[in-house]
Amino acid sequence: MKMSVKMWFGLAFAYGATLAFGLALYVGLIRSPLLGSLSILFYRGVMIAGLTAAIMLVGGLMLGRWRPAVPTLVGAIALSLAFNICFLITFPVTFDRSITMFLLARIERQDGQLDARALGDVYTREYLGEMRQIDRRVEEQTMSGNIRVEQGRIHITPQGRRLLSGGRLIGGWFGADPRFVTPPPPSKAH
């Protein structure tokens, strides 16, 4: 079946409108207290992205005009779901976890007053000290099941090992710095 230009534009409009509406609904639900008890932004974001897709699917099916085009509706919502998860990972989660963003904000705050050593001191004092980012990561990774803490000692779980193996594999594909996922052996001093 050959599609006319009008049909192509209609399809593009349906997908574009679904993407725009899906993102607006997603951001609205993220900003609401919905699932606020989930402290890990990534997990909350993925769950709300799934809920957004479900709401859109039910809503689209209830609007009788989509019924003849259920494959288009499902495709547009699947694209919206994928876009929302990509958006979550690319922006909010990256900003929430980014040392680079932390450093840029401190450089902005003290524009021209810091050298590399002073910036390192700010990082150690604020990021690691006052903001307790190591404690935060231990708590998150324990909740995620990648580590377990027993008698104050941190152990990696089989799931954590699989995550690292996947990170090494995918990082290798993209030429990522391997030192983040394959550290050198610990020194004798530790």
Explain what you see.
The chain has 190 residues and is mostly helical. It is built from 7 helices and 2 strands. Strands 1-2 form a two-stranded antiparallel ribbon. Helix 1 crosses helix 2. It starts with a helix and ends in a 16-residue tail after the last helix.
* Basic shape: elongated
Q: How much β-strand is present in the residues? A: under 5%
Query: Strand-and-helix sequence, N→C?
Result: HHHHHHEEH
Tally the beta strands.
2
Major beta sheet summary:
2 strands, antiparallel
Rounded average pLDDT: 93
Distance between the termini: 69 Å
Order the strands across the largest sheet as they lie in space: 1-2
Write a concise keyword list for the protein shown above.
190 residues; two-stranded antiparallel ribbon; single chain; mainly alpha
Summarize the structure.
The protein has 7 helices and 2 strands; from the N terminus they run ααααααββα. Helix 2 packs antiparallel against helix 3.
Describe how the helices and strands are arranged.
Blueprint: H1 5-31, H2 41-62, H3 70-97, H4 99-109, H5 116-130, H6 133-144, E1 147-150, E2 153-156, H7 158-174
Antiparallel strand pairs: 1-2
Helix pairs in contact: 1-2, 1-3, 2-3, 4-5
